[in-house]
Amino acid sequence: MRAIGVMLVLLLAWGAAAARAEETRKMEPVVVTATTVETPAEQLGATVSVITEEDFRTYHYVTVQDALRSVPGLDVRQSGSLGKTTSISIRGVDPTKVQVLIDGVRVASPTLGETELSDIPPDLIDRIEIIRGPQSTLYGADAIGGVVNIITKKGQGPFSSFLSQEIGNYDTFRTQTGFSGSSGRVDYSFGASHTESAGRSRNDDFDNKAVSGRIGLALPGDSALAFILRYNRGETRLPVRSVDDSGAPLSPLPIRPFIDVNARQQSETLVTSLDGRTHPVPWWGSELRLSRYENTVGFQDPQDPGIPCLFQPCDTISQIDVQRREAEWINHFYVGTWSTSSIGLVSRGEDADVSGNSPGFSKRTSTEAAFFEQQFRILERLFLTGGARVEHHSVFGTEATGRGSAAFVIKETGTRLRASGGSGFRAPTLNELYFPGFGNPSLQAEHSVSFDAGLDQRLWANRVRLALTYFENHFKDLIVCCVPTSTPPFFFTSTNAGRANTGGLEFASEADLLDTLTAHLNYTYTETKDVATGRWLPRVPRHSWEVGLTWAPTRRASLFAQVYAITRQWETLGGVYNSGHTRVDIGGQYRLVERAGRLQALDLTLRVQNLLNEGYAEVRGFPALGTAFLVGLRASF
Q1: 402-433 per-position pLDDT tens digit
Q2: DSSP character at residue 434
Q3: What pLDDT shows up at residue 141?
Q4: What is the pLDDT of residue 489?
Q5: Average pLDDT over residues 396-401
Q6: Which of 73, 110, 177, 625 is the most interior residue, by most CB within 10 Å?
Q7: Taking a C-beta distance cutoff of 8 angstroms, is the pair 406, 42 a contact?
Q8: HSE-up of 593 (CA within 13 Å, CB side)?
Q9: How far is residue 40 from each of residues 68, 146, 261, 268, 335, measured CA to CA in Å?
Q10: What is the mean pLDDT of residues 227-231?
């Protein structure tokens, strides 16, 4: 908290000098995730945040989750050091209710229902669009809390390339390379990376290799094709075990974990898509996407030396192979500049094969959906959007959802009023349906009704940008695990018995204090309640802050500082709390060489995370790293 106070004092001190600065403009981003068509953010009733490629360069984010920590209303949960299991929550909604996409392709595991963010390298990212609030109308199941869409870079202009090498403590090494450009009707971009780290304890290693690429072809009639591929393979050591030296289960995990000396996991992911679009006439456009997601996870945990085996099998081995195939066809119909109607059809199939030295399963499900969305733009001041979706699942049947939003812009005062509301649902995962011991094929979908309203205000000739949002989420039919049953062959089962509510406020602010100095302050207040127990929902802080400064003291140099602070969170397991924490990150970049032969630039980069060596865990029992730094060189050609 002291760090936040220091940052606020700096903001006030620089604010006095900022009155003499020249006027600057920040362009309103164009967003595709909220409506499936390119729409300026000011015309959206939804709450939107955009993380750009420039943000990745400014802050030298090592991972996608590092970038997402700055988004109001979004909580990152990383179970330990670099490469360990990481998921996100939006507005108090658990990770299974947040849809994560890569270029519109869903990448959540069909078995767990969550997206493993540590498996997504930040290669070739053009921007990340975060839409908070229910999005089931456009994206179907599992988009109750919101949607995070990672959009890859499209090559343009002459050939360019880069090579980056970074080293840091904890035996951390990171290499990135890539090239992009366009020639005639063809555009291309390619990236590759390798990251490895030894972690903070025994058996805490991480190694990840990734490649990504995109090639596009422009066709006559305002048409185009694009093939996109992302592949990564990671090997992660898992140092935390859930039993003490006597072999007795721990509930909950201790703050200082007992070390598992031999547990490890391998993950391999391939995401491919073929996208086609055409807009041959002013009144009609069409888009078709064919995509495939494949993920393989292997887990091995031999019996720990010196630890008694209380239950067989003592060596744990599992293999999970999942696959998702999806086809989506959307047609857009335009009436002048004031109306856009979109009709979409979706077909999706999901397979899972779970095996090992304990019972597994092999199952397949299918989903078909149709949706309609209507946008109206009235006098360039009032923007209305509404839609509905019907989705049929081969196991639990048919669900219908609806959503509407409105935005009203008062250009003379730089004010925007917005509101949105809708219903949503989450489909049971394949584990919840079929996993031996607790799966239940009779499960139905979880349901929600959500609402938000907000005010955006621009001041001081657009140098100050403010946003305030109120939100509510109400859930029913939540899936509750491990209810005792006497029906063979199950000892436990899952059922639709839960109810919960979340609500709160989000505040976001950004100010150009000088032409070379920008500051921002984001704050989120979240109230949650499990209706059955009266308790908080797990791992959701009531208060969270993020404060940042970026400063370019000279044309060659740039610096940044960020402070993250969250309060304690309730942990269901054991009925305890996870302590809150304050983390400070700093870093910057200095241009050593500019335009020397084929070398366009050579930059020295630095990022220091947890500068004050705060001892904390985003998930109780999985300590985060202490002070960690990465220093490197980036050459651009």
Answers
A1: 999 999 999 999 999 999 999 999 999 999 99
A2: H
A3: 85
A4: 53
A5: 94
A6: 73
A7: no
A8: 13
A9: 21, 19, 52, 36, 18
A10: 96
Tokens 């949105």 identify what position?
420
507-544: pLDDT as tens digits: 999 999 999 999 999 999 999 999 988 999 999 999 99
Q: Cα–Cα distance between 457 and 27 in angstroms, integer?
A: 15
Q: Helix, strand or coil for residue 589?
A: strand
Cβ of 148: how many Cβ atoms within 10 Å? 28
| Residue 178, C-beta contacts closer than 8 angstroms, at least 6 positions apart | 123, 124, 161, 162, 189, 190, 191, 192
CATH class of 2-636: mainly beta
Q: What is the CA radius of gyration of the chain?
A: 24
Between CA 246 and CA 310 the distance in angstroms is 9
> What does the domain layout of the chain look like in residue ranges?
2-636
Place of tokens 């029913």: 476
Q: Which of 2, 45, 134, 7 is nearest to 522 (CA)?
A: 7
Q: How confident is the model at residue 14 (pLDDT cuts 50, 70, 90)?
A: very low
| Cα–Cα distance measured from residue 48 to residue 133, given in angstroms and rounded to the nearest whole number | 9
What does the alpha-carbon distance between residue 502 and residue 49 come to, in Å, rounded to a whole number?
20
The structure tokens 């993380």 sit at: 51
What is the pLDDT at residue 109? 93
Q: What is the DSSP string of 543-558?
A: EEEEEEEEE-SSSSEE
Which pair of tokens denotes residue 30? 């164009």
